[in-house]
Structures are given as C-alpha cells and as structure tokens.
C-alpha cells in the first residue's frame, strides 16, 4: 500500500510541476504583409478552386518571413473559403527558429475583408516548444502580384 501511495504522490508532483512551469499564455499581435506569387485555377462543377502560393513578411510578435500554399474555394453561393499551411522562418518573442502554421478563413464581410483562425502545428530550434492560436483579419491582397495584409492576434506560450 505504501508503494502505491509513493507512486501516486510522485505522479501528482510531476504533473503539478510541469503545469506550474508552463505559466499563462502571452498575447500575440501584429501584421502579415503578403503577396500571391503564383496561382493555379481549376473549375469543378459550379465551384472554383484556386491553389495560391504566397510570400509574406511578419511584424509584431512574429518577426520574419514565410511561404504559404493555400486553397481558395469560391462556391456557387458566392461564399469564399480558404485553408492553407504556412512555413515561417524568424523570431517569436526573440526566440529564433521555424514553425508550421495552419490557417483557415473566409471572405467577405461588409467591407470585403477576410477573417479566419491560425494555429501553430510544429516548430524547430528555439520555436520547437512554441504553442499558439488566434485570429486574423483584413483586406487581403487584390489578386496575384499585389501586396495585401492581414492583422493577427492571439495567444502563445513556450511549453517547458
């Protein structure tokens, strides 16, 4: 019985220590300026599918550059959706490294702006233990080879 109590106590201490070290998340925010460098268009039925290839420059909490491959779908109703995977190279809160981020979103609100969510899915070097998620919003780009921007906000933290 004593043996089980010691094991249980060790597990509780290990879990409470790692939780305490994680701490509360920090707020992220800034701007992503991007340009669509290539686009492939396919039509299937009444839907239009556009594979986009972007280059971006990040300022704010995320400082660096990224490339992205995304899919824009224009539905017969006029609704437009987006999902993509972004590869970032730079710094987050001064820590250098690379990360992968998933983006989803839709267009358009009354002002013609895009809105969506982002989540960090992996990282390397100083960003290997970075976790985060948030939102993005903005006018986007007016088409291929036209610079556009979106603002981002959210929370992030470094896992112990």
**Second CATH tier, the architecture:** Beta Barrel
Instruction: Let me know the number of strands.
Output: 8
Gap from first CA to last CA: 33 Å
Q: Note the total helix count.
A: 1
Rg over CA atoms: 20 Å
**The named CATH superfamily:** SO1590-like
- Largest sheet composition: 8 strands, antiparallel, barrel
| Uncertain runs | 3-20
Strand order of the largest sheet: 1-2-3-4-5-6-7-8
CATH-defined topology: AOC barrel-like
Protein structure class: mainly beta
Relative strand content = over 45%
Overall geometry: elongated
- Percent helix: 10-25%
Oligomeric state of the chains?
single chain
Number of domains: 1
CATH class: Mainly Beta
Output the helix-strand order. HEEEEEEEE
In round numbers, the mean pLDDT is 88
Protein described:
- With 160 residues, this protein is mostly beta strands.
- It has a single domain (25-158), classed as AOC barrel-like (Beta Barrel).
- The chain contains 1 helix and 8 strands, in the order αββββββββ.
- It has one helix at residues 2-22; strands at 26-44, 47-60, 62-74, 80-92, 95-107, 114-123, 130-140, 147-158.
- It has an 8-stranded antiparallel β-barrel with strand order 1-2-3-4-5-6-7-8.
- The longest helix has 21 residues, at 2-22.
- It starts with a helix and ends with a strand.
- The model is unreliable at 3-20 (pLDDT under 50).
């Amino acid at each position: 019985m004593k043996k089980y109590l010691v094991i249980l106590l060790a597990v509780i201490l290990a879990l409470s220590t790692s939780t305490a070290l994680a701490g509360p998340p920090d707020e992220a925010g800034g701007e992503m300026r991007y340009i669509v460098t290539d686009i492939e268009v396919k039509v299937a039925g009444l839907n239009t599918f556009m594979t986009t290839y972007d280059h971006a420059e990040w300022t704010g909490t995320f400082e660096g550059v990224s490339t992205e491959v995304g899919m824009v779908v224009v539905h017969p109703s006029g609704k437009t959706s987006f999902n993509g995977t972004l590869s970032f190279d730079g710094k987050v809160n001064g820590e250098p490294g690379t990360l992968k981020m998933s983006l989803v979103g839709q267009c358009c609100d009354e002002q013609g702006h895009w809105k969506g969510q982002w989540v960090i899915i992996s990282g390397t070097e100083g960003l290997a233990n970075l976790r985060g998620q948030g939102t993005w919003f903005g006018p986007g780009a007016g088409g291929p080879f036209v610079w556009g921007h979106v603002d981002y906000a959210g929370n992030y933290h470094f896992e112990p």
